[in-house]
Specification:
By secondary structure, the protein is mostly helical. It folds into two domains: about 110 residues, Ribosomal protein L17 (50s Ribosomal Protein L17, Chain: A), CATH 3.90.1030; about 60 residues. It contains seven helices and three strands. β2 and β3 form a beta hairpin.
């Protein structure tokens, strides 16, 4: 009976289970992705992640310890030469389980197990984190600084518009003044012309009387 047993035996003896997990770990290290059942993937996750952590320290002792688990020189070489460099900055969680659905035949729950740092599609989708901006009700100094340059930029445009308006208005005013002056001159000339004929009539009358 399995009372108090916290791990999954996977329906195998201890030696068979150990050999199977060792073989699956080697396949995962070499191919970076394998397809298996969810139960085996969860057991393999507990088995392979401590091995990947040991590969971060490249020493003879750590290589011998990893070889005792994997029993494969090619996978040990791949782990220490290539994978350890990629996972060096990651503090755990080297693998990912992606569920696929149930298998035809025995209806087993299937999944893909892969190394996180080798999925280029998911790594390429990540965008750089944007700087968080905090909004406050009170006016901050930064807000004032950002508003001031905008006002400075708008001021020259308004000055240009005013200058252009002055340039346009001045000739019109001069023309209006010239027209008024010419009208006044005409009025004065009309008045003088109206006053001058009366003395001429007087002279004509005086000439007749003489």
């Amino acid at each position: 009976m399995r009372h108090g047993k916290s791990f999954n035996h996977l329906g195998r003896t201890a030696s068979h289970r150990k050999a199977m997990l060792s073989n699956m770990a080697s396949s995962l290290i070499i191919h970076k992705r394998i397809t298996t059942t969810v139960a085996k993937a969860k057991a393999l996750k507990v088995y392979v992640e401590p091995i990947i952590t040991k590969s971060k320290t490249d020493s003879t002792h750590s290589r011998r310890m990893v070889f005792s688990y994997l029993q494969d020189k090619e996978s040990v070489r791949e782990l220490f030469d290539e994978i350890s460099e990629k996972v060096n900055d990651r503090p755990g969680g080297y693998t990912r389980i992606i569920k696929l659905g149930n298998r035809l035949g025995d209806n087993a729950d299937m999944c893909i197990m892969e190394l996180v740092d080798y999925n280029e599609l998911l790594l390429g989708d990540k965008e750089p984190a944007k700087a968080k901006t905090r909004r406050s009700r009170r006016g901050s100094s930064k807000a004032k600084e950002t508003v001031a340059p905008k006002a400075e930029k708008k001021a020259p445009v308004e000055a240009k518009v005013v200058e252009e308006a002055e340039v346009i208005v001045e000739p019109v005013v001069e023309k209006v003044e010239e027209v008024k002056a010419s009208e006044e001159i005409q009025e004065i000339s009309d008045e003088s012309s109206n006053k001058n004929p009366e003395p001429e009539a007087d002279t004509e009358d005086n000439s007749k009387t003489e």
